């Protein structure tokens, strides 16, 4: 895959997708309040209603939308509906901020190379839903988080940046909860930094390499 996304003339338009509390969304909201950040959130979408992430968006005065899988005939129909809901806001970038659904062919056909995700492990190690638990079970001494572009695989897209977190001797005592919280702190900061850079500097995806600059 070769993608060239030059810097936009104004703030990059972001649509953020959430499924839960929206802590990464809040970090992006806080960062984008600075005109120098280079990006603005234009809408927030979710796969279910009644979540704190949507409340955060509404409090910030942002439009929101909910596209539930159960409201569609099958997963492909849901994927098409989500794509159209996102496209209505003409985003330059889509940020999956704790969005707990796999994006399908319709969505990726339109937004592959423009959809950013985070993962709580150092990919390609420990992909999937249990990255923290799997790193602990394997006996890893360091783990961390990855910011990457989404592709058709599970956590297999081109890596943009990574942050390292040490595994401590007592992290297994609580099932990895404390480790996960340390990872989330690094993850939020890294996501904010990377989305800002993508917006301000532009980027190119050349195979698996992501390079900043137009």
UniProtKB/TrEMBL annotation:
Any idea which residues are catalytic in this one? Answer: 119
Q: Could you tell me which pathway this protein works in? A: Purine metabolism; IMP biosynthesis via de novo pathway; N(2)-formyl-N(1)-(5-phospho-D-ribosyl)glycinamide from N(1)-(5-phospho-D-ribosyl)glycinamide (10-formyl THF route): step 1/1
Catalytic activity annotated for this protein? N(1)-(5-phospho-beta-D-ribosyl)glycinamide + (6R)-10-formyltetrahydrofolate = N(2)-formyl-N(1)-(5-phospho-beta-D-ribosyl)glycinamide + (6S)-5,6,7,8-tetrahydrofolate + H(+)
Which annotated residues bind N(1)-(5-phospho-beta-D-ribosyl)glycinamide? 22-24
* Catalytic EC class: transferase
The organism's superkingdom is given as Bacteria
Tell me which Gene3D superfamilies the record gives. Answer: Formyl transferase, N-terminal domain
Pfam families found in the cross-reference section? Formyl_trans_N
Which family is it part of?
Answer: Belongs to the GART family.
User: Which residues of this protein are annotated with the site description Raises pKa of active site His?
Assistant: 155
Q: Which stretches make up the Formyl transferase N-terminal domain?
A: 13-194
* Keyword annotations: Purine biosynthesis, Transferase
Q: What does this protein do?
A: Catalyzes the transfer of a formyl group from 10-formyltetrahydrofolate to 5-phospho-ribosyl-glycinamide (GAR), producing 5-phospho-ribosyl-N-formylglycinamide (FGAR) and tetrahydrofolate.
What GO molecular function annotation could you give as one example from this UniProt entry?
phosphoribosylglycinamide formyltransferase activity
The protein's matches in HAMAP family, at most eight in alphabetical order, are given as: PurN
Q: Does the keyword NAD apply?
A: no
E.C. no = 2.1.2.2
Protein name stated in the entry: Phosphoribosylglycinamide formyltransferase
- InterPro entries in alphabetical order: Formyl_transf_N, Formyl_transf_N_sf, GART
Instruction: Locate the residues binding (6R)-10-formyltetrahydrofolate.
Output: 75, 100-103, 117
Keyword Transferase assigned to the entry: answer is yes
Alphabetical list of NCBIfam families matching this protein: PurN (TIGR00639)
List the SUPFAM superfamilies hit by this protein, alphabetically: Formyltransferase
């Amino acid at each position: 895959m070769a993608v060239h996304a030059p810097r936009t003339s104004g703030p990059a338009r972001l649509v953020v997708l959430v499924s839960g509390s929206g802590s990464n969304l809040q970090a992006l909201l806080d960062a984008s309040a600075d005109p120098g950040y280079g990006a603005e959130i234009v809408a927030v979408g979710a796969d279910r209603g009644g979540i704190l992430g949507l409340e955060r968006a509404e409090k910030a005065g942002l439009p929101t939308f909910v596209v539930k899988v159960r409201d569609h005939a099958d997963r492909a129909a849901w994927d098409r509906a989500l794509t159209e809901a996102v496209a209505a806001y003409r985003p330059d970038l889509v940020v999956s901020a704790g969005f707990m659904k796999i994006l399908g062919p319709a969505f990726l056909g339109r937004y592959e190379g423009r959809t950013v995700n985070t993962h709580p492990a150092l990919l390609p190690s420990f992909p999937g839903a249990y990255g923290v638990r799997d790193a602990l079970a394997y006996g890893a001494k360091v783990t961390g988080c990855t910011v990457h572009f989404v592709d058709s695989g599970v956590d297999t897209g081109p890596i943009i940046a990574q942050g390292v977190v040490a595994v401590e001797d007592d992290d297994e005592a609580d099932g990895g909860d404390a480790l996960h919280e340390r990872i989330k702190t690094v993850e939020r900061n890294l996501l904010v930094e990377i989305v800002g850079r993508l917006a301000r500097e532009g980027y190119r995806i050349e195979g698996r390499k992501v390079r900043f600059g137009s």
